[in-house]
Amino acid sequence: MDADVFLFAFSIFLLVLVYYGFIKTSFEVFTYRKPSNGILLLVSLISVPISLLVSYFLGFLILLAFLACQRLSVREVIVVALTTQFGFMMGMAVVMLFLTGIGFVFDIPAFKMTMSPEDIMRFLRNS
Question: What's the domain range around 92?
Fold first, then answer.
């Protein structure tokens, strides 16, 4: 198995765990319900790859569809969905920083960030 494929799968696995943690926490906190862990994991496994590889908005729509099937009020659906997506964005930034740090420490080329500080500033100004 190629090392880059393994590292990509490891990154997706970490992001699925982050998404699962946020959807579970926000669902329980804002609705006072405890959904099945298997269903939450399934939604996480579907939403994360779609959010990362296809469209972030499509992943959000899948989450909204799942929450609508759980017979929640409109307010609960919106709060749980936005909390989950915001937490996932923040978690994604943390996971990427963590993996970049591991890339530098253990000299893993696939995880190293090869941009200079000047390149980063130029990228941030143009986006």
Answer: 3-126
Q: Looking at the 3D structure of the chain, how many domains does it have?
A: 1
Residue 111 DSSP code:
G
Nearest-10 crossing angle of helices 74-105, 3-31: 150
What is the spatial distance between Cα 104 and Cα 9, in angstroms, rounded to a whole number?
19
Place of tokens 């939604």: 43
**Least confident stretch, 31-40, 58-67, 86-95, 109-118:** 109-118
- For the record, the structure tokens of 81 come out as 């969905």
Interatomic CA distance for residues 67 and 107, integer angstroms: 42
Which uninterrupted H or E stretch holds 19?
A: helix 3-31
The pLDDT tens digits of the residues spanning 80-94 come to: 999 999 998 888 888
Residues 94, 99: Cα–Cα separation, whole Å: 9
Q: Would you tell me the crossing angle of helices 3-31 and 37-49 to the nearest 10 degrees?
A: 130
pTM of the predicted model as reported, rounded to 2 decimal places: 0.79
With a cut of 70, say whether residue 44 has pLDDT above it.
yes
